[in-house]
Amino acid sequence: MVAALQGPDPGVRGVGAQGGPSTPTLVGVSPQTAPARLHVVTGKGGTGKTTVAGALALALAADGRCVLLVETEGRQGIAQLFDTPPLPYEERRVAVTRGGGEVKALAIDIEEALLEYLDMFYNLKRAGRALRRMGAIDFATTIAPGVRDVLLTGKIKEAVTRRHDGQRVYDAVVVDAPPTGRITRFLGVTGEMSQLTRSGPIKTQSDGVMAVLRSPQTVVHLVTLLEDMPVQETADAIAELDQTHIPVGSVIVNMATEPLLPADALDRAAEGRISGADLAPALATAGVGNGALAGALAREAIEHARVWASQDALRGRIQALGRPTVELPLLTGPIDLGALFELAGRLEEHLAVGAAA
What we know:
The protein is α/β, with parallel strands linked by helices and 357 residues long.
């Protein structure tokens, strides 16, 4: 079952927490009720959106499905994530999943994408290569950043709609997209291009891209942390995306941690009602106690409880956005392929719970 992140729930390392007070839920849905096939993953810088995109691609590829993971920012982040050599401008398999599923990855090269575009619509591949030798292509895409976004979204749309022998080549496409501050412009610039042209290949291509981006085939997932600025950027991005009629999927809370104290102790500590004297008897019984240690532990408990209370308040702000929400737990150790599969497994669990609901 290819599912979309489209309903409320909890739920990755450096990607979120598993539970705790006010933890929301993720609902996944079956292909019959959720035709979303293009999953755009965005988030404020530092929230772990590339890791989330990689884990989501693995989750969607389970049980024999084929998923394309697309990088748009030229950082080779996907290659680092999957511990592979730098990706060329071609689709390469980076992981095999349960049931023979596979994840292929593509790092879009802007110059090559423009050459492909010129060849596809104007039969100008040879002329395009001449322009590249003169540096004209790099110059054009540098002074007109909107051109880059048009080429990127055009290539993404082509992958989503590509068929071979009448069958879709990819069951899903996951995009590691630009940050939240730029996501609406990135996804909407092709629509602006369409308004500037009355007819011809550019008009046709632009309309085709926007038809996909504004359809139920597409969902934009927003990755955040339980911190004020990422949560605010998430809220702003959702409002902007709604205005442009681009479908919003889930809010994915990354790097959330679980409380270290039980609920009643959390409340007491957050109010400053825990002291060294409260902890000293237990420490003495354990044979490790002294007044200084008890006082230090009490201060740490108070700080932890107040941080948790602040994060829980942010959970409330996220829930108020009215979007499906998933929390992913903070893991220990480096993000390697094993960690990615663990995160993918957690996403799969949530998808399965949502589909059964």
